[in-house]
Amino acid sequence: MKTAILVIDMQRGLCDDAPRPYEAEEVTARINALTERARGAGVPVAFIQHENAIDLEFDSERWQLASALNVDTRDTRIRKTTPDSFLRTPLDAWLSGHSVRRVVICGYSSEFCVDTTTRRAAALGYDEVVLAADAHTSHDKPHATGAFIRAHHNVTLSNITSFGVPIRAIASAEIDL
């Protein structure tokens, strides 16, 4: 089954600026290792970048990908304006053009864009949706730490069965490509 890696919103204004999200350096290192393995296996990689007129204006310094991310010229970049990486973007067409039936999702923010994109991929009927369990992150919130938010979404998303598509939370180093 053809796979693609989707790296969501790992941008300077979200990941490099203080305060940084939970395990920002470790998550970036895991994403770099995952995308490097993917490229070596011929698996396409897409970096999805959020934009808005308030603090993530297109092509601004804050909109750029996080400084520690390793990006290759073969990688695709997709712009988005909502938490759903599929809504009003070319993502589904790009995946279809690569005959992808399995997506691996990682990035920022666990409870918004990562969660929404994971659910949407399942709703669209991809054969399998994999959440890189240790390669997504969030900032601490008044009600929950970034660590708790990530753990909560790993359990919650992998227990959704109503889409009829498996959503699996797997440690990034254990994901088969």
Can you tag this structure with a few keywords?
single chain, 177 residues, alpha/beta, six-stranded parallel β-sheet, 6 strands, globular
Describe this structure in words.
Helix content is 32%, strand content 21%. With 177 residues, it is α/β, with parallel strands linked by helices. The protein has one domain (3-174): Isochorismatase-like (Rossmann fold, 3-Layer(aba) Sandwich). It has a 6-stranded parallel β-sheet with strand order 3-2-1-4-5-6. Helix 4 runs parallel beside helix 5. The protein is globular and about 40 Å long.
SSE arrangement:
Blueprint: E1 3-8, H1 12-16, H2 24-40, E2 45-50, E3 76-80, H3 91-97, E4 102-108, H4 110-123, E5 128-137, H5 146-158, E6 167-170
Parallel strand pairs: 1-2, 1-4, 2-3, 4-5, 5-6
Helix pairs in contact: 4-5
What's the quick description here?
This protein has five helices and six strands. The protein has 177 residues and is α/β, with parallel strands linked by helices. The radius of gyration is 15 Å and the shape is globular.
